[in-house]
Structure formats: C-alpha cells, structure tokens
Fold this sequence. Notes:
The structure holds two protein chains of two kinds.
Chain A (H helix, E strand, L loop, with lengths): L2 H15 L5 H14 L5 H12 L7 H15 L5 H28 L8
Helix pairs in contact in A: 1-2, 3-4, 3-5, 4-5
Chain B lengths: L5 E3 L2 E3 L1 H10 L1 H23 L4 H12 L7 H10 L5 E7 L4 E8 L4 H14 L18 H8 L15 E3 L31 E2 L2 E7 L19 E7 L2 H13 L14
Parallel strand pairs in B: 3-7
Antiparallel strand pairs in B: 1-2, 3-4, 4-8, 5-7, 6-7
Helix pairs in contact in B: 1-2, 2-4, 3-4, 5-6
Amino acid sequence: MDGDLDSVVAGLLEVAREETPGPEPLNGLTDSLLAMIDSMSESEGERAILELIDGLDGPHPQIGGHLAWLCGCIMENGANAEHMAKALTPRVAAALEDAGRFVERVEALPETASDA
Amino acid sequence: MRDGRCYVRERQVPPEQFDSLLQEDPRAAQSFLALDKFCIALISSLTRAPSLLKNAATSLRSPLGGLHDVAQYTYFLDRLLRVPMGERWLIIDPIHERGFALQVSGLANAFQVYALVHDALVRGPKGCDGWTAPVAGPGPSTEVVAVARGDGPRNGRGVYVPPFTLFRWSAVTADRRVPDNDCVDHWYSNSAVPAELAHFEGNRVGVIGEFGWKMEYAPSREFSSLQASVEATEELDRAEVERLLTAFTTAPSPGQPLPGVGWP
C-alpha cells in the first residue's frame, strides 16, 4: 500500500473507532479512497480490505456498514472475495440480529394516523 | 431511509419516535440503517466466492428470517442465499417416459433455469454418443447461454423463448400426464426462483409439459458476478421414470410455494 492509501485507511479506522464521529472526515476520506480504487493493485486492495474489516465492529454500526460498502467497492476491482465473505458473514449476521430488535420495536409501537 | 425519513416496510417512523428508539437501543437503530450497505458488500463478495454460499446461508438463515422485506438489499441477499449450489435436479418428460439427472449451481432466476436446463438437455450427458434431445429444435443461442452462465454481459439482446414449460411434480395426474394449458397451480412460472421447484425424495424435480402461453424472457442475470452451470449427468432408466411418475400421483402435494422463496 502506498503512503496515501495507508493514511486514508488509517483515517477511516480512526473515525470508525471514535465515540462521536462527525460526518465530515468520513465523507472526505471516503472520497479519497474511492478516487484511489482504479489505480490500486489487487494486493493493495486486499490489504486495505483486511484492515478496514477490523473497523466493522466499532461502536457505530452505520459506520461499520459504510466501511463494508467501501470494502465491496475495492473488491469490485479484483481483490480476493473469499477473505471478505468470510469476515463479513458473521458481521452481517450480527447486524441483522440487531436490526431485528429495531423492527420489532417499531412494529410494537401503536399505529398513528400517518400509518393508515 | 427515504427522503430523510426512516421506514420499516411501508410504515414511516416519525422522527421523534426514531430518536427515542435510537436513544433506547442505538446499536439496533443504526444497524437497521446500515443493512443495505452491509448486504451489498456481502452480496458482492459471496457472488465472487460462491463456494461459501452454503455456509453463509446456514449462518444467515435465522437472523435474516423475517427481515427479507425491510431493506432493498436484504431482499437480494435472501434471494442469493436461496440459489442452489451443487444440487441434483431431475427433469421428467412424462409423455415420452424419459428422465434426466442434472447437476445445478448458481441459478438465481427463471430465465437461467429455462435457458440452462434447455441447453443441458440439448447437449446431453458428457461423453454420451448418439444423444437424442428430449426437446425439439436447437438449443438456446450462444449469447443467451453466455448471459445465463455468467460468461457474457449481464443483459442480452432480444428475447429467449423456451420450447418447453416446466411444472412441479405435483402437476402429474393419475394418467401420468401434465395437464396442458392453464395449469398455473403447478407451473414453474417466469417469475419463479429455482427454489420454487419442489423436492421429491431429496431432489428438486421439474416436469416437462405443454402450456397455453409461450414464455418470453429478456436474457438477464440477477447477480452479475455469480457463475451458473447446469450439466446433464445421466438419463434415468425407464423403470425409474415409471416409478417416479406413479409415486408423484400418490404422494402428498407439496402445496404452493411462497413466491420468491419456495422450499429450502
């Protein structure tokens, strides 16, 4: 990985681990990473994915989902899909279980006039 | 989220209620909002690593459960996890009392089922001399097969019209025929997923029959990176075909599949 890619990935992981991340650094780093994808080698892409996957378990599932999506964008360029599928499957299972609680809570709420 | 508002199925969650649920269980609310991105990434990786599909389906079947319709990509993930991998299918032709075993992987929609079953029936089992195809005419075009298998573009030009219609085994009547025309209860329709072919004795079974309508497909794959294959592995003995045809008429009906879901 070249220095720029290293620092962008490190920046994304830092945002993912913050307790109260702001949207601006995430948006800027995302744009930087997306701009690098076309010139990334397969091995650089794989390493970036493996590092970003570490950030999926952070305190903010929405940022975890965003990093997963970024990994998918990198993988479309040719990185090893098996590593990513193996790492993502349990994370997606956990996200589904968590999301299921939200759906249950919403469906247990009394209906309002706007639902009709 | 649509227009900045959270929806669960068609129910809008008012912003104040969403904020309250977010406070109460932030992980649950955020995970709900992140579902599409997580699912897109997993679909991208699993379609490129299909050997992991079966294990992923085992891990995700329970948590995905009733959530297939809460986000756009939970729907597609659910469909992907129902894709047959390394399954043995039987195609039975009751009129000519012939039957064929197929090895099936990677099919996600009815176009792929018809085009690749058609192609496999025309080609016959590998190394089988003097093969007589059970369907009339040439096989599907090279372009149609390439789209269906994942060797070509995701969408092809023109239309593909299969020269036969598939039904579930429950369509076979006591006189060993598939009722023609309008037998929609057992029809393997042009919107069905592969899992809407019911099992019989552990194999999915398709029965060749006639239908009043010709189906037309715009050649298209649902998952661009997922490779599909259907190979005829053997022609069944006539006695086995006769046994199956008799057994179909006396076995309890599998009932109707849930559209888009079928039987696991």
